[in-house]
Specification:
37% of the residues lie in helices and 9% in strands. It is mainly alpha-helical and 89 residues long. The chain has one domain. A three-stranded antiparallel sheet has the order 2-1-3, with no helix packed on it.
Length: 89
């Protein structure tokens, strides 16, 4: 995978360059240990994730999940009186 941008300034990461080809798991651990949470990759210079969904597919899936959740009836917890709670305690 080719890292195009590390989403941080050049003093905040342990690499000599901000753009480079990832060549080992150790480099991934260095990125994580530096506190970097996201990176930009260049799929023209390196491999992309195989079978990754498109943005449109992900947005459609999220929208369907939100609609499904919104249509569910809320879980109603039966109310109890203070006296009933006191008896159970």
């Amino acid at each position: 995978m080719y890292i195009h941008d590390l989403s941080c300034d050049w003093l905040s990461h342990p690499f000599a360059r901000s753009r480079f080809m990832l060549s080992s798991d150790q480099e991934i651990h260095k990125i994580l240990n530096a506190g970097i949470h996201d990176v930009y990759i260049d799929t023209g210079k390196g491999l992309d994730v195989v079978d990754a969904p498109t943005v449109e597919e992900v947005e459609q899936q999220i929208e369907q999940e939100l609609i499904s959740i919104a249509q569910q009836s809320p879980l109603l917890v039966p109310q109890t009186t203070f006296a009933e709670e006191l008896d159970r305690a």
